[in-house]
Amino acid sequence: MKLFTFALISFSIGCLFQVNGQTTSVQISPKWDEITEKDIKSLLDAQTVAINKNSLADLMKGFWKSDSLTFVVKDGIADGWDKLNSYQKHNMELMAKKDPPVKRKMSYEIKFVEQWSPNQVFLIGKGIVTKEDGEVGMTYHFSLILEKKSSKWVITSETIS
User: Fold this and answer.
1) What is the pLDDT of residue 115?
2) Longest dimension (CA), the chain
3) What confidence score (pLDDT) does residue 78 get?
4) Is the dihedral of CA 29, 33, 11, 146 positive or negative?
């Protein structure tokens, strides 16, 4: 009887196969191609500008306008663009009262990315909210699934923690 062990190691490392003590690694996919990187960074930059301006309409342009959109937060899941729009509106109103947009600045860092196909990317990032005095007020992590729909990259799923 042959011993066969299979382990999937995600995050761009690939698949690791072990058969009878010999290990073979297979790369799943490249991180992402240059055009996709440029397009997605442009989308994330636009999202950041929208948040910094407290512009709900501009923020929502980056999300897939579909009932199949998912947005996962501590409180649960918002299914669909309309529910996410309501959720974001409420959050932006609360944030504006607590810490007006002129007194804070949102930025992000990309921590990990993997292009699953020419039209689909998985991304993990860190959001940073800096106060007017330069002090970091809050950080959080997020994961996105972005898909190219009608020649435009949009967020189809987001999880924030």
Assistant:
1) 92
2) 68
3) 85
4) negative
**CA distances (Å), 48 to each of 62, 118, 138, in order?**
10, 24, 15
Domain boundaries, the chain: 1-30, 34-160
Cα 68 to the center of its chain, rounded Å: 16
Beta strands 152-160; 70-73: pairing state: parallel
Helix, strand, coil share of the chain (percent; to 5): 30, 45, 25
* Fold of the CATH domain 34-160: Nuclear Transport Factor 2; Chain: A, (3.10.450)
**What pLDDT is recorded for position 133?**
86
Q: What is the mean pLDDT of each run of 10 residues along the chain (161 residues)?
A: 32 39 43 86 95 91 96 89 92 78 84 93 94 88 96 95 90
Q: What are phi and psi of 122, to 5 degrees?
A: -110, 135
Phi, psi for 41 (deg, rounded to 5): -65, -35
Residue 5 Ramachandran class (φ > 0 left, ψ -120 to 50 alpha, else beta): beta
pTM over 0.85: no
